[in-house]
Amino acid sequence: MKFLLVLLAVLVLLWLLRGSVQRRMPPPRGKAAAPPAPQPMLRCALCGTHLPRDEALPGRGGVFCDDAHRAAFEKSHPES
Ligand SMILES: [Zn+2]
Fold it and tell me: Which helix (H) or strand (E) holds 51?
């Protein structure tokens, strides 16, 4: 009976050690974990802030960081 208890304790210890080793390993690098492809950075025509192409708002005279800058730029540069 004592032998069974020792065997059980050893098995539990091994199981716990195995779990902690697996937790320390970094997650596998799959396609889902890959970072997004780099995007070209564009410059706001009004304030000069650089922003990724996906976030840039195209407007007359260039791209802008937000609607307010696009409106301000187009107001100060009236179409001729
Ligand atoms: Zn801006």
Answer: strand 50-52
What residue segments make up the domains of the chain, in order of their start?
A: 39-80
- CA 39 / ligand 1 centre spacing (Å): 18
Instruction: Give the C-alpha separation, 13 to 25, whole Å.
Output: 19
Q: What is the pLDDT, as a whole number, of residue 31?
A: 65
AA letter at 59? G
Q: How far is the CA of 59 from the centre of ligand 1 (A)?
A: 12
- The pTM of the full predicted model, rounded to 2 decimals, is 0.52
61-75 burial, b at 16+ Cβ within 10 Å, e below that, comes to ebbbbbeebbeebbe
